[in-house]
Amino acid sequence: MVSPATHCLPRRPPGKRCSKTSASVYNRCFCSALPRPSASHATVQAEGCVLRGVPYSMRKDVWLLLSGCAKVRQQSPTPNLYQDLVEHCTPCVHADAILLDVNRCVAFFDKPCVNKESVTRLLQAIVAYRPDMGYHQSFSILVCHTLYHTGSEEDTFWLLLQLFDHCNLGVWFAEQSDLPAAVNTLCTLLLCKYLPLLAAHLKSQHLSIDGVIVRWFTTVFSYSFPMELSARIWDWVLLKGIPAIFQVALAVLFLAQDQLLQVRDTELLLAVNNLCTRGGWSQEQCDALLLVAAKYFALL
Asked: Which pLDDT value is given to residue 204?
């Protein structure tokens, strides 16, 4: 598990934010398909509030504001869309997979609102509304995590729809999407640029972190990450959009770099897979991770 220190941050690497190669990959794969949030959200004041920590009692309202789902729902020609889908959608071809995932995921979220019936309804509604994405195992994690913090099926449904559009994560799940391969390529380039020692160490051990990166992206860091930490990351992602996911991924690896450079072979593989596993994180540790993401990797 990463245990970030709260010491002063190092300077960012000098020069432009990306090499021509990494910038080309980023522009081709993300700038048009994965837009940043509205500039009205990404103010200095909002960034400061998120970095200091959104109070738990306000998190639901902040997420609805940053995602824009409250406004979208209000302006929608079908404001009762979720209820209509629940009442009229028939059991889908993914019913068995949904049931299996729900039984496994609900146990990790100790809150009455995160129950099998609610999660199942939400998953079936999302699949019915976005058949282009099919069904993916990470959907159950996303639903449970969002429902845990909103406490409302309606709000969870609209917030996740906005997450798929707001950060355009729906592109990831589309059939025959080349986004996962593009993300892995870009992460490798960014790792070589910002963390060359760690990149060289991983290469010398013939170890790829592609599987870890995919897990982080498809669940937006809500799988195995401590609850408070993953909520703080969502604050940042909803504020800054897709670049925030890259920032956080690099920040996690940056804070774990010294630990990872000390191990080899199977121990290295185990250490990479266990980065930020569930456990208690203090507010200071969460602050340190987001500060690294926001300041050290701010140019992404």
From this structure: 95
